Amino acid sequence: MPLSLDALSTCDARFNQIATELALAKPNTQDGLVPLYSLLGELIDYTQNEPFMVEACRELEGKLSALLDSGEGMDPNCLNYIQAFITWGMEMIETIQAGGACTPFEYAIESDMAEATTQAAGPVLEVEEGLDILLELNPDQDRELLEEFHTEANDHLEQIEANLLVLEKNPADAETLNGLFRSFHTIKGVSGFLRLLPIQKLAHEVESLMDHARKGKFVLSSGMITLILQVQDTMKAFVTQIAGALQKGQLPTEIIPVSHLVAQVRRFIQIALGEIIEGASGTVEMSFKQPVAQKSPEKTDSKSAPQKVASTPTPPAKTTAAPFDAKDAAKHAANAADTATIRVNTVKLDNLMDMVGELVIVQSQLQEAARATQSQGLFLRSLGQLTRISKDLQHTTMSLRMVPVKPSFQKVSRMVRDLAKTSGKEVELFIFGEDTELDRNVVEQISDPLVHMIRNAIDHGLENPEERAKTSKPTVGRIELKAYHMGSNIIIEMSDDGKGINGSKVLAKAISNGLIAEDNKLTEQEIVNLIFAPGLSTAEKITDISGRGVGMDVVKRNIEQMRGTVEVSTVLGHGTTFTVKLPLTMAIIDGLIIGVGEDRFILPTNSVKIALRPTANQFTTMQGKAELLHWRGQSIPLIRLYKHFKIPAKIEDPTEGIVVILEVFGKTYGLMADDLVSKQEVVIKNLGNLLQNRPGIAGGAILGDGSIALILDPVGLCAAALK
Fold it and tell me: Structural domains in the chain?
């Protein structure tokens, strides 16, 4: 009986995990031996119906067991043997998926077989010496060049990851292949100039691989793409070391091994080009050769269509791309001229933003002075012109800080691919609105919440292929990631078509963990919102992906720190959607200024629903303490600001004051103040260590009359006031 789809998917995930562990292994050490041995045991469990695969796994398991018993490390021949096993295994998975039969794995690791292997199949690849060395950096002498390389390398590595995920779906995409080649070529050239030998050598080998692929000599396989992703991860580690040297003066102290990756890339090239004879004694019985067709794949309109990223391996396409020529180069040069950009140090942008903020404050002060002056003619006209200029300058400066959300979404694409393989599920990610722009600080901070939401969707939300087939769903799960603007906010939606959130299960878990009382009556939405409680997990067992009760509470906390909100909606059996609402910028907000006694407070307008003057019959007192306001058929808690901050108020009767209705995480609250002062954009100022992290306070602002007003955090304020 052949392997089931679920077993094939799990086996493919284990081969990818073995490839990852091999990339981390160091020659002539036992690093990686234990996880490799463990993964082989799991492979054996899932491949019982394929005798050749079980035999190959048991043979390698025996060799690794002997090394563990003897205390010896994996020499270069052993590393080559494992890489050949991975390559063969991935090829066999694709063959079985296509309806073919598994063939035996043949390879010799023993030293007395090396000569026979060399004669039959060409030289066995030795791990090149002199590459596993510390990165030599001289920040004092080469600072400007290293800073430029650090920035460019980060850009190229992000583009490499995005291109590889595209190639996994369409391995013959000519433009993507050329883009990959150019990225590695650039990294190789600059790293060579800076004498960064490990980076240069690694980039050179992958550049050679990409050059063969773009010239149509072979088509990239899933194993090749996995290996290049490992190379990209290794280069990221080098770039991190460079960042540490530039920012903190910490020179690299850890050697990042690259020799085994260089050897693996070379071996892939040899096998793909047929330099290792297929079927010969001591070689891997496989071929990466693909028939070459003359017709190139049709192009799609990337602007109108959403980006679709496949997270499960796809058999190589039967077409290949034409080589990159001068016409392509001219076209890319023209496009580059149209979108020419320069890099500006973020410190300079922050200083410019601070100066614009001061200008906005002075403008507000002039407006206050204009109201008090008697001669308002020329003065008011000049003030109006200043207002227009400062507005334009403010919006232009803010736009300089705006960057596309694409980098964060791109990281998610890679993670979906890896998690799908680890969990044995089939997942496709659809991205919409990746060019939507928001403040660069928000882009940097949104990555962590996105990671947790995606992990939650894959591990808890999406079913495995067999379960989906039973419910008449497509075997491939769907995750959608959207970004779009709504007013002065950006909305990020993450949805899946999985099994949804089981409210009764969440409630039972919350009660058993002591998070809520058993007799507590909650609405359906309040039950679903319990997933954001710290320590709550409905996972039946702890896995590498989730199950420790850490994740969704981090999502909520991080988004609240960005003055945002997150909402969740779910339909049992059909899926879940998380909606994150964030301000466009972290520096300037739209604020509603309210007065309490002699003090002024600012509420972010994105939390305000309405402001009203209530009547006496709208109030109820619970147990002589808690006050409720009846509004639109619901009873909402009333918070008196003067009581919370213990300050004198001019008005204590709610019917004579103003109640601002706030909505926080689906709950509604009433905030009592003396009066409404105005609505305006305010510049957020840091209050320093003394008032930092105070519940209910997000920062401060200087008003037009020169006074200081506290900016309130609705989430923290409501939580602290109702304790």
Answer: 5-121 (1.20.120.160), 133-256 (1.20.120.160), 346-400 (1.10.287), 403-583 (3.30.565.10), 588-721 (2.40.50.180)
